[in-house]
Amino acid sequence: MELGTFSVSLAVKDIKVSRAFYEKFGFQVIGGEEAQNWLILRNGEAKIGLFQGMFPDNILTFNPTDVRAIQKSLKAQGITFTLEADEATTGPAHASLLDPDGNAILIDQF
Questions:
Q1: Topology (CATH) of 5-109
Q2: Quick one: pLDDT band at residue 44, thresholds 50, 70, 90?
Q3: Three-state secondary-structure class, residue 6
Q4: Buried-exposed string 62-95: b where 16+ CB fall within 10 A, e elsewhere
Q5: DSSP letter (8 states) at residue 71
Q6: Where does the pLDDT of residue 105 fall: very low under 50, low under 70, confident under 90, or very high at 90 and above?
Q7: Helix (H) or strand (E) holding 22
Q8: What is the average pLDDT score of the chain?
Q9: What global pTM score does this model have?
Q10: Virtual CA dihedral for 9, 11, 13, 14, nearest 10 degrees?
């Protein structure tokens, strides 16, 4: 199962303060819109998404090339999803689930 790029999506209180903090670690903005309260930062292979006011908790995020195949495989293993990608479609889609401790996981194909 190829999960693709991994990143942590952080629910932040102040995107400008968080951006400045992570830039001190060498992260650079590679996407997003600060005016729309979301940014994607990268330092080498490490990626962090900063999201202000979009969701209540942090999320583990995977960006595969085929979210539907991953969803099908996990469902066959008894994993329950909180949101499923429509398996009758192709192209960009996402699915989400919770791990046993309630941590949110987003599988986002774009």
A1: 2,3-Dihydroxybiphenyl 1,2-Dioxygenase; domain 1 (3.10.180)
A2: very high
A3: strand
A4: bbbebbbebbeebeeeeeeeeebbeeeeeeebbb
A5: H
A6: very high
A7: helix 15-23
A8: 97
A9: 0.88
A10: 20
